[in-house]
Write a structure and sequence with these properties.
This protein is α/β, with parallel strands linked by helices. It folds into two domains: 273 residues, P-loop containing nucleotide triphosphate hydrolases (Rossmann fold); 194 residues. The protein contains twelve helices and 20 strands. The strands form six sheets. The chain has an eight-stranded mixed β-sheet with strand order 3-4-7-8-5-10-11-12, with helices on both faces. Strands 1-2-6 form a three-stranded mixed β-sheet. Helix 3 crosses helix 7 and helix 10 packs antiparallel against helix 11. The longest helix has 54 residues. The chain is elongated, with a radius of gyration of 33 Å.
Length: 551
Amino acid sequence: MFNMRVKGILEYDHIEDLHRSVNNATLMNPGPPVLYQLNTERKYIDGTNRKVRRWTYGRRDRNKQNKVILMVGETGSGKTTIINTTINHLLGVKFEDQEFYQITEEAKETSEITVYEVFVEENPTSLTIIDIQYTLGHANTEENEEISEYLSGLFSDEDGIDYIDAVCFVMKASQNHLSDIFHSVLSLFGRDIENNIVFLLTHSDGGPPTDALNAINKAEIPCRRDEDNEPVHFLFNNQQKEKRDELCDDVYRSAWEMGEESMNEILTLLKEKNRKSVQMTLDVLNERRQLEACVSNLMDRINEKELKIKELNQIQEALRQNKDKIEKCKNIKFTVNRSFKEKVPIVNEWWWNRNATCCSVCEENCHEWECSSAVDASWCWVMKDSHCTVCPGKCHYSKHVRANKKYVTKVVKVETTFDELKRTGEKPESSFDKKKYEDTRKEHERNMKESANTRKIEEKLNSDLEKIQYEKYLLLHEAYKTIMSLSKIALKADSAFTLQHLEFLIPRLKEEGKDEWMKNLEDLRKAGEDKKNKGALQHVKDFFSYFTGKK
């Protein structure tokens, strides 16, 4: 009886201490467990976009050791519960307290980043959790560019994040294939972050998470691994705030203790000196933006060269078909496609694509996509040391204009004659009115001269074609080097951005006879497609097995 009384007094004192430390919360549900919403101070970090939010609980203490965790997971993975479980652990909440505190609110169907900061007076460690929220829990190329921009803002802001201690991928323990979200996030980081990536496996029954680990290994996710070469992972049950029934008290206690054990292991892991500065990742994000703008611009310029080649080929074909008539000085007409550049307004685009940075000297779209955060051309991502890294002349930013207009290449059909083509190089001769013999001789001379002129035009066309073909080769080489450079610095080499340009580059490198380059890009594409197809195939097999009972 005495021991039970002492135990009761100790539990009462603990609850009193907890209530003193958690004195800024709103009752949401009487429970049990009693559910509280922590009241937080809220602000936007990135200012204009209002997509990067900071929610702070408690009084900021710069003297405390702070740990930064980035969490990402698809809808339904249990990420929100994990975030709140982490906060409760930091607050010192015990199972016997019959209480649960949450810092999150219901997620919106929009891409955004929320930074949760928790400062508990009695705890020597403060915690920062970066929560990446994808629309409806899945990712695409356009949305990933949004998240990339938000992270850049978060990492570069004066009041932003300087380092990361762990990147936590949240998924169910029974999940047998990986969401595209994980691949999208991996493409945003540099290679130095690999050993900081761990997995938080939710809805676990406490047994070996075989399905999840197999899915991680099949997807070849770069991550921290243990002595058995298995992905480092931690188990959670996600029943912490479920309404409790005395008959199932042992079940809820077991779930709570599993989370406690995992949280202790995570905090032990965070004590290691494995912190990574975000400067390298920020450099990767910025370099990636410049490389993306460069590749996009290169594709436009290669297309221009190909249009010009087609135009010259059409002229050559017309000269060949009409050679006999041209030699007789007939004014043969034919139609060619001529390409030219025109600056037009940007319409029907999302707000982040409504402005482009264009070089008025080179007449190039230096940064057409995702050019939303720059105040003027000097602030654009493609500027380095006050000069553009994309346009052919690498011009000063003052030669650039950031506005709701961009250059487009247009093609028009024009009717021209051989004489008009010839006049671009020399003036036409005067005709002569002489005797029949002289007329015949002059006509013959003119025919011979026209024949020579035809050969000169053909020679110039051939020269122009060779020059343009070489310029195209240089552009292809630059695009190839850019793709390979991006693949080397990114944690995930076969990102969606890389793969989307390979269909354009590979056949053109084949035309140029660059077999080694083509093979390197083919290998890159195959690696990306294999991972995607293996995941899809496994998902179909698992679906079939579930309904048929066959393995």
